[in-house]
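Sequence in, structure out. Go.
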Amino acid sequence: MTTEPAYRSAVYEKAVDGFGTLSIRPLDPERDADLIHTWVTEDRARFWGMGETTRDEVRDIYRHMDTLTTHHAWLVESDGTPLMLFQSYDPEADRVSECYDARTGDIGLHVLVGPAHGAPRPGFTGVLLSFATGFLLRDPGIQRVVAEPDLRNDKAVRRLERAGFELGAEVVLPEVNLPEVFIPQKAARLAFLDRARLEATAA
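Output:
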């Protein structure tokens, strides 16, 4: 008799004015595969780069990520309803480090907002993004959040800018071709959220 692994519980929660209590939990490759496959294969997620993957391929990609100490996948939820997938990673262990001078204290961020539930709420995506970056910056050793959205995804670039990120250079992230994962080359725009700059703005 096999026992199903326990569902992963929230590691961070916060009440957000106008949006209730948001939480973050680790993505579960087995139980979340159907959900994530639905999200990444929608046309609106074309810049995520997984539009042609099968459900099992999605599961296997996140199974592999789950074995790493440098890359992590998270779900933002509201009352158990998944709202956003984001991935955090050590830039020095990622292809982005070939495109800029990574610093000690940097952490990388990839974000995919899920489909809307109910009537659209203005500013909701910005709230989710700020919630995710706030979670990452809880670690006092983290000094800067690094993002590299697809260069063609102007909407994502502008959203990061509104959230306080400072835009950097246009770069080309090299192809990754390993037995465990293949990631094609990507033209991207670097963006940086500096802790010191963020704290100065808030002061």
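Check: DSSP finds five helices and ten strands in the chain. Strands lie at 12-16, 20-26, 71-78, 81-89, 106-113, 144-147, 166-173, 176-177, 182-183, 186-194.
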